Amino acid sequence: CVDIRTLGAKTGLFTYDTGYLSTASCKSKITFIDGDKGELLYRGYPIEQLADHCNFLEVAYLLKNGELPNQQQKGKFEMTIKQHTMVHEQLVKFFQGFRRDAHPMAVMVGVVGALSAFYHDAMNFYDAEHRNISFNRIVAKMPTIVAMAYKYSMGEPFMYPRNDLDYTANFMHMMFGTPCEQYKPNPVLVRALDIIFTLHADHEQNASTSTVRLAGSSGANPFACISAGIACLWGPAHGGANEACLNMLEQIGDVSRVDEFIKRAKDKNDSFKLMGFGHRVYKNFDPRAKLMRKVCGDVLTELGLENDRLFKLALTLEKIALEDEYFIEKKLYPNVDFYSGIVQKALGIPTSMFTCIFALARTVGWMAQWEEMLIDPEYKIGRPRQLYIGAARRNVAPIDQR
Ligand code: ACO
What we know:
This protein has helices at about 5-10, 45-55, 55-65, 70-85, 90-95, 105-115, 130-155, 165-175, 185-200, 205-215, 220-235, 240-250, 260-265, 285-300, 310-320, 325-330, 335-345, 355-375, and strands at about 30-35, 40, 45. By secondary structure, it is mainly α.
């Protein structure tokens, strides 16, 4: 392992590593992934244990503070988050400036970015108290903003947060409740969504987290940085993959057509890829995919949808792909997105909102990583180098000679 900075300073050398396949951009104590083993740890705790024993807010506390909360800390943190769930009344006007058929992720980029115009004290982020309040505000307001984006797209009235409900049940109330009827959360479905949040809470230096860090490295407002992360997450190769995966399953349509699509995925001349398969770091099962498959089964059973067509199709596709030479050789396994679309659809979340749910959960990781960067004594503005391959120096010709 070579310290590139020292090497660069002494010799003027630097690495060319497109896609950052083997370049670490930072040191971090937050999340560890062993891609060969298929292991994911948040602050040292296996994701399976966290999904089993903790709720999402405990995981949020852990990611930010490094330790799980005790009962008292948990209660205090939950109360603090509840105090910040409302959004400024003027923010409602931002929604009204968007077309109703706008993609909710486009709305999220704008509205979350606009929070930076409401909280100027967030700029004093060398003060721990200010970093804490920024974290609490955004973690508390994301469910409200996501639910507002959904309600706006539906032309339905916004639902105010209910502080008698816990974090995830309150989100479901704001998504699915109406002013005419008190929303009664189903504990099995609430728990399922809560686990989905936990599974998406952090994933070390993925594209969107690196974007948040890079934006934050210049000293930008944290809400503007989260907005940058949301923009990056939107792409189909990242957070948009669950939406793309569900669309793909619909396109395949029936178990009888799985072979045809597997063949297409293997064809070099066909741009089709199996969505929800493959990962830059996992060269084994994505542990989140296993947990997601279980959550998916639980939700479908609770709703009496055990024979769901897309779930059966996904199980068949997974089985066939995992036995196929191409997928074995390239170490392509299902990732977290493979089952998450099916389970979210069963929960009543429309496809266009899937990536917003991901953004809601990942905000916790983004903020924890943003803070970790700022308090790192080695922290510097992010400034990648490039390998210039353009024209050599030349002179500008007068316009009549070009
Ligand atoms: N279907 C078919 N072939 C695939 C797939 C796939 N889903 N994924 C990778 N491959 C092939 C590539 O064509 C490539 O083949 P080659 O070696 O012959 O050129 C090889 O496997 C390696 O793939 P890369 O794209 O080079 O791997 P990379 O690490 O750059 O990309 C990625 C990872 C983007 C996730 C990719 O596997 C993919 O596009 N998967 C589908 C989209 C998806 O599910 N994204 C969600 C990722 S998880 C997340 O963001 C939460």
